[in-house]
Amino acid sequence: MGWGPWRKKDGPVANEPIGPKESLALRLVAERLGGLGGAAWEVAGDRVRGPGRVAVVLGHDHEGSEGHVDLTFVLDTDRPEQTSLPDCVSGFGPTPEAKLERAVRMWATTTGAAVLETLEQRGRHGAHFPAQDPDGFPGRHAIQGGIAGWGAGPEHSSVQRWAADRALLPLIAPALTAAGLPRQGLIGVKLFFGTFHGKDTAEVRVNGRTSEAASAALLNADWPRPPSGGSYARTYAVLVHPS
């Protein structure tokens, strides 16, 4: 299966009514990105507009939970099909507002940071791995955002600490390469994994679509499995084919 350009029919849903949850999510995105990049980000309808033709578009909430939000980073709104990086994230907390705030914070730390670094190329928001770097993705320049972690119990941060000390992209690169990646366009890769009361979860999404093979490869990695409580980690990388 290949990973072609993100089709318009799979893209953000525009012109839908914006409710209180959606309005809050957009405001939080504008605040977080403004704090990261220093540029002005403003809410406009179903999106947050940034500098130039950059925007973050609110997508259809396919999950419907209080702390879940679908966000697509569009690097050039004149060419959305070629420059869209879709993602989704869920947060937790004591109130719906706290859940949404946590979700946007994790998205900004991981996805937002990686995309801002892709745009700015200043080394402020993410780590760069050239195509030949053994800690990166073979044949692609990789830009990885931060690693967000959360959990419960005495070992709640164990998976995040493990992820911070490991090269994650080489774990999934063989599976994604075998699936076939396009030469043109940006590729966004989300990694989410962890365990809760003995139940393991690992998910790799490529431009918003789950890769079963890469998810299985991540599941088989030797990240810690706390016997009680839970621990999770999330990160995001943008892959660029060298010109």
Question: What does this entry show, briefly?
Answer:
This protein is α+β, with helices and mostly antiparallel strands.
SSE arrangement:
Elements: H1 20-37, E1 42-44, E2 47-49, E3 55-58, E4 68-74, H2 80-83, E5 84-90, H3 96-120, E6 127-129, E7 141-144, E8 148-152, H4 158-164, H5 169-179, E9 187-196, E10 199-206, E11 209-210, H6 212-219, E12 230-240
Antiparallel strand pairs: 1-2, 2-3, 3-4, 4-5, 6-7, 7-12, 8-12, 9-10, 9-12, 10-11
Pfam families: DUF6348
Structure description:
- The chain has 243 residues and is an alpha+beta fold.
- Helix content is 30%, strand content 28%.
- It is built from 6 helices and 12 strands.
- Strands 6, 7, 8, 9, 10, 11 and 12 form a 7-stranded antiparallel beta sheet that branches. The protein has a 5-stranded antiparallel beta sheet with strand order 1-2-3-4-5.
- α5 (169-179) packs antiparallel against α6.
- The longest helix is centred in the middle third of the chain and has 25 residues, at 96-120.
- The chain is globular, with a radius of gyration of 17 Å.
- The model is unreliable at 1-15 (pLDDT under 50).
- InterPro entries: DUF6348.
- It holds the Pfam family DUF6348.
